[in-house]
Design goal:
Rossmann fold; elongated; 5 domains; single chain; alpha+beta; 45 strands; 12-stranded antiparallel sheet
Amino acid sequence: MSTSEATSYTFRVVNADGSVFGKGCFTHEGPPARGAVTIPAASGPKLTELWYSDPLVGTLRLADVRAFAFGPEQFALQLASGDQSVELKGGSATTAKPGPIASHRHGGNDFTSQGRSLEFPQPSEALPEATQGAATVSAVDLVVVIDASKSMRPEAVGLSETLNAAIEVARTRCPCDLRVTYLGIEGLFQGTRFDTTVRDYLRETAGANEAELKSRAYTWVAGGKVREDGGRAIEDLSNHFDWRPEAQRAVFFLGDEGLDGGGDVNARDVVGANKAIQTAQKARVRVHTYLGVTDASPWELEALKHEYARVAEETGGQSFLVQQTLEGFQDMLTSVICGSKSAPQAGAPVRSCCQAAVESPTAAVAATTSYTFRVLGADGALFGKGCFTHEGPPTPSAVTIPPATGPKLTAFWYHDAIVGSLRLEDVRALSFAPEQFSLALANPDSTLDLKAAGASPAKPGTVTQHRGKEGDFASQSRVVEFPRWAEPTVTVTEGQMTVPAVDLVVAIDASKSMREEAVGLSEMVGSAIKAAQTRCPSNLRVTYLGIEGTFGGTRFDTTVRDYLLKSVGADEAELKSRRFTWIAGGKVREDGARTIQDLSAHFDWRTGAQRAIFFLGDEGLNGGGELAAKDIAAANHAIEAAVSAEVRVHTYLGASKVKGLEALESEYARVARETGGQAYTVQRSLSGLQSMLESVICGSKPPPVTTTTEFRCCQACVEDFVAPKPAPPPAPEPAKVVVEDGKLRTLEKVYFASDKDNAIPESLPILDHVFELLRTHTDIKKLRIEAHTDNAGTKTYNQDLSARRAKWVRQYLIQKGIAEERLDSAGFGLTKPIDSNATPQGRANNRRVEFVIVEEQPPPPVARPM
């Protein structure tokens, strides 16, 4: 399958500690989809392959997908086997945060509570159908676009040839499927490769709708002309170029002035760069930049370099200067053209979705699996506890003793007050499978035993044998529960609270435009600090300063300069801040960047203290006004100084009337971001400040250490409770059949229905006692069953009736399990009375059954001393 026909992704299920537990992958038709891929299919491309494997559910495939949703911002799925015995359900995972596992079942056991999570899928490009070891070639679309203004003409020819040479060198280093397109922004350079404009190519070749283009048709604009609209050109190429579906995408922009119409960098250029970055990121386009020879002043050049580099860095590209030509281009182009090409190593896994890809050893397979079970009394109260461990992960195969199939049992313990503690060597029989559980336990001399069967996930099993030293307790109606997977013990150890020293300097632009906010900000910052301090221990020192001015009635009652000179003893000659004076565009009370430099370098930071500056302003960072090249250059110096001094800078942009507010907000945010701080605006003040200040000043604990200890079946596991004493067993019934004078004498008579040969039901227990005695007295080799009657009726009738009754009793005992050869029967009618037939009682005594021992096995001879 070629990369143009399908797109593959991989995903993982991870444990609570972050280790990998399961692996999965899926493939859908076509290129990476912007819409959702769903099952049941509702929209988006068709899912053509899915595999998932972990130690609990085994391996599941596309046919096992019950629900699936994958889009740019979320991922969820539900997998289940055909018989529903195993299931994995997880979501909603995002690019920023894994999704919880909501169901993780195997057979009758649920493992959901183990805290696993589902990660958002990562692209996994499928390799083309080629022989193993052959180089793999991805498509690359590279658009080289140049600022077509007059100032770039001298460089155009040289750059055209330099680019061509660099591309050829890159091609010689690796196989490639490269398409290069050379375009000019609203202009051409004859005699070079830049012979088509961006606008013409997008309309005529790519079929773009001109109304949707951000680029402006050629005309003069303030400060330059649209032939220098680099930011807009990057937007239009990202959105409308005819990128091949499977191709890597790259734009290489060449220019020498601002990105929004040329000239110096100003607020419009920053906003234009922001839009170009956002559009390129969304379209998965890397932008490489080249800043050519320029007439810009030193600070303007610094701002240009910064903005060109920012566009490249934030889109994953590289930036180059006029001093870096052939060698730099060759390296960059080699990475663009060859970056995704490698010859597969022998035995390396193919990065496509298949069963082998998810069944790699990466999945964490448990060395053993343990279960616990309980014996309950008739009232449902706990009576006994047991556990067992088998080798390997949970298995659908039965675990049996004697072993027949399935994994080996490595540990077993059971404890209650009747049998005490029994262990693995006391297991006579055990069978455990997803739907049934039974066991038989007995100590070596069989004086203690427990036998139970028929337990399932839905219903306990019956305890059929439960003997201890005090007797048999089986009649007390206890049950055994189906085993449950033994969850590991999770121990969370909290670290000790540490309270760091924190030095926070709150510095405000002391210009008139900030006066109205100063009082409110003073109280707001004070309230936020107080709220943070009440929530946690802290060692905080806060200093409030104004830039070349103060605000009466507020906390900002000292200037930065006075504090550094008088309290710290700084050398004024070393300060970067300018003394209060009017400058073009504003006054130094708005010198935010220089203030950050001076505070970073000269404030009396306590040794070991965390360092933070909170700067409050409403205009440009280099003397106020709207954002310009000098502000960007000054911000760069401030960032460099703060980073060098390990100072975090937090910024607050108040209500501002300057033009280009979006660019100003972007620059305030950049200073905070690049120093590790946070940026705030007038729209998000107190709540944001409190949150930031809490993170700055609060004492902190190290992250809790979570230790997971796998359960292992041991004696202590089952003896960790007070086993209840059983009710005493019932007193044994007195013997109803005894061996006496060569007979089995029954203490109760055997009665028959009148004139019938079958015993009445009430007499069957007597015959059962005869059976039990014969079963245990194997020394009785032959027994004759004799039946007798009284004298009522004829002699012949009574003879026949007695013979039939004796025969019926013999047959009953045979059916119970006594061997035929041990039993004879005989009827004697009225011939052997034992009492007078003249009275009712005498006749009742004559109606009887006798059990006569005919043959016994002699006892073994007694050895006599010599």
